[in-house]
Amino acid sequence: MALTVAQAMTLPGMRMRLLAGRAGLSRVVRWAHVSELADPVPWLRGGELVMTIGLGLPGDPAGRQAYVERLSGAGCAGLAFALGEAVTAVPEEVLAAADLQGLPVLEILTPFIAVTEAVARWHADERVRGERRVVAAQEAMARAALLSGTSGILRALAEHTGGESLLLDPQGKPRAATPAGERPWHARALEMARGAARLSAGVLDDGIQAVQVQSLGFSGPPTGWLAVCTGSPLEWHARMLANQAACLLAMELLGVRAGRAKAHAQRGALLAAVLDGGLSPRQLGELCPVAAAPYEVVVTAAPVPPEAAIEALEEVAADAEELALVCARPEGTVFVLPERTPSGGGPEGAGLAAPRWGAELCGRLGVPGGGCRALGLDELPSAVRHAATLAARGDGYLHVDDLEASALLRDAFVPAAAHRFAAAALRPLREYEARHGGDLVGSLRAYLEAGSNLETAARRLGVHRNTLRRRLAVAERVSGRPLTDPGHRLQLWLALSLGDLVPPG
């Protein structure tokens, strides 16, 4: 609350009479100051009630008019005369200029020192009243934080500052506001947040409204932005309450983030169990909420810290963050997100490719990555393998569908038929393994992957070359055709590597 000239005239013990400048009675009195200088402006800061007996008044009418104009231009609150010492009446030029400038001119019958003490006492009392209001408001915001969280803090802040409040996410998107809905000043707050430093506060005061924007967080990138709009000028207690609210909101958001991190860790452990074969995809869907298929599977070229992964997920895919799966793997960090729907619902938008999460995630994390599509949870392990292979190239972000050969090869197969082909081609070998043991399928794959080099394949398997030679001989006998037959080799190779060659989706 500010002390105006009209209020100063009514302070206890004050005897003043308005002579001119009624339009300026709402001017704010910051201090009461005595000056008999012909030009006191260089010694003033604005907001002063200048008291004088008239010794410094210029002797000519033009000079007296300029005297008033200079005081008004310097932001003085008013001009008060004690008559009878140097002048018996205020000159007409001063009164006329005061009316034009809207600068109150008073006749004062109270000692100057009494006026100064009264103004100082009012400001001291107002400071105490303000501190009490701030304490009460801080207690109210703390209670609101416990009872209603973010919305309660914003509501209490708006109530106790007499303004409006707005919470922005790290990208500057509105998350909550009091009152609800978009307001004209929100655009200014958004512009200030986007142009501010990582951790900062700023005020934009146009003389009508004061918009204060403050970053949330105690270290690192802001977790959001708090904006408060109040009347101009911005009062000190509004600044203090905004700081208090920013701390409460930062702690609230940290608690929310900690809860999300714990939930992601639990969901990530289930995803890791599926990728390791210890949990079936069906069980994953039963144990935790999962978004509807299809999915975009993203793998970074190297593992990233869990905090950074979740932070990037919140910033890039805020709408899909709650149903996303994240886990760290030896080959890199794995993200499973619901696939974005194509843009445009009508005929004109049909067929437009939806932007992928992977490019934005990898760009935010600053690491290469790979992506693959999965039509269901059962395709996640295969999608992770293909995405990790692309991520290992280190060429920015690559998606399986952007590699024409892989996409065309996948489209050339009917998944169910391809599975039946692989099962039929490998059935004799698997049946022999089931009855007699031995790793015929694994040995055959290692041999073919090594380019039929017996020494290399045996070294990769960790067995003697004679052991591998005996296994291959059994595989030839069981399958009924020699491995030197090109057609037979191709059939076996396709059956063994179909899951790796043909990406899911």
From TrEMBL:
Location of the Purine catabolism PurC-like domain: 9-121
Protein name, per record: Purine catabolism regulator
Occurrences of domain PucR C-terminal helix-turn-helix (ranges): 440-497
InterPro entries per UniProt: CdaR-like_regulators, PucR_C-HTH_dom, PucR_C-HTH_sf, PucR_dom
Organism: Nonomuraea angiospora
Stored Pfam families: HTH_30, PucR
